[in-house]
Design brief:
Rossmann fold, binds adenosine-5'-diphosphate, GMP Synthetase, Chain A, domain 3, alpha/beta, 8-stranded mixed beta sheet
Length: 547
Amino acid sequence: MFGQMQDVPLLMNRILDHAMINHGEREIVSRLVEGNIHRETYADAHLRARKLSQSLQGLGMGQGDVIATLAWNTHRHIEAWYGITGIGGVYHTLNPRLFPEQLVYIINHAEDKMIFTDLTFVPILEAIQDQLTHVKGIIIMTDAAHMPDTSLTHAYCYEDLIDGQNGDFNWVEVDERAPCGMCYTSGTTGNPKGVCYTHRSNVLHTLVGNSADVMGLKSTDSIMPVVPMFHANAWGLALSAPAAGSKIVNPGPNMDGESIYQLLTEEAVTFTAAVPTVWLMLLQHMEANDLKLPVLKDVTIGGSAVPRIMLEKFERDYEVSVKHAWGMTELSPLGTIASFKSGMEDMTFDEQMDIKVKQGRAPYGVEMKITDDDGNELPRDGVAFGHLMVRGPFIVGEYIKGDGGNILDENGFFDTGDVATIDPLGFMQITDRAKDVIKSGGEWISSIEIENVAVAHESVMEAAVIGLAHPKWDERPLLIIVKNEGADVSKEEILSFLEGKIAKWWMPDDVAFVDEIPHTATGKIQKLTLRSQFADYKLPTADSAAE
Ligand code: ADP
């Protein structure tokens, strides 16, 4: 027996319909690859997305076809998502920072039929086009005046495609469980694995993302998604902003401190989101030029752990409220967010920072538990750490084409590959990736926690901790540091700075100074590469222990 409410399917394109009808005048502002700032409204975007749907059908695309995007955050990228899903197609974001071989693998594995690309990435596609098995055409996201001289066969000009249509088009109705989007994890080990979102999962994720304790966007907000749409769906902002009617400010390809600062101030941005490395550049730019952030109210930071020093600078020096978030491609991507519970507003600054440095609480829609190696649930005491497992309607059930086999436990929880604690109030804190955790004398050492303390030293720009083999303890931590420009600091000074801030037995056995720490395509420290770089490195404690 069913209840008697309207069974309106949860379709992603209805979000843009809502924005057009109720917030048609609200702007989408974009810094373009061509260099200029472009402005349009939600009404414009809605019309242009419908024209794009018409063009895609004209090019032979239809329901279920996977159409990739290789693009920065701009109005065209947003239009492309809705234009693709509007014909019942599936948008597939490609990360341009991946190696060409990985791109070829992903494009062929997903069976992409067409690719939208920014001008910037035309050379990448020219180099790999012969290896693409299903691609029938490339749409270059520019106007006729900027069309490049290209060796791409079947290249189309985005603005010409739009100009050729009248927009008299109704979105193709599909089942809410039909596929609508795809994103591959960056695959630091083995081949990348694909996640396929449904209309329903995207819409539910949007509702949760827009709840007050999560990102809580409002129609009065001007939001800047610095996190790229090709990185875990820009944390859902291309859907949650139109759902709320917020103005969108797209940074395009320029993510340096100066460009971000300029858009934040000129476009009166109230909310923004990105990974810590972007904010490091912005903070450096503002400190060097003695700048303030008078309008910005909220910044959501995730993708990697937020160093406490960054949190404190935003909150104290710039009066911007930081929400630390954790998520992953497999979660659409929002998993937790560190927003206060009752009474926390009255705590001291330091107590508040102790809470905000954690990755946060699960919103309704995400169930979370930590388990030991045998799958037994561990206590929520803020001390025990174990495998972080999650379940919910916008969390992956299986990878594309069944890669990796069954990825859920017997209760339907997905193993995130992260290791975490959960405290009695429900705040989760990531201590490591399971594969990065340092196992010393049968106990686990959190590399992230040591890194966070180390970057608070004034001479340290970036820090990474890896476990190296040790004859007595199995593994011991090595702290790897990139110094700030012109800074001079010794191993002893770093170690004495750590003293008292971390457990004694967590103290790194050595400190190595390097010019650069390698990063993955999504801006995370590449520990696998570091471990192979330091494979022959001998810890000073190893000799004495072996004797
Ligand atoms: P990829 O795996 O392709 O780099 P994801 O964004 O999906 O891209 O990566 C998800 C992983 O990033 C998480 O499993 C976790 O290890 C890490 N991560 C995300 N947010 C945080 C955070 N706030 N603190 C620590 N780690 C984080």
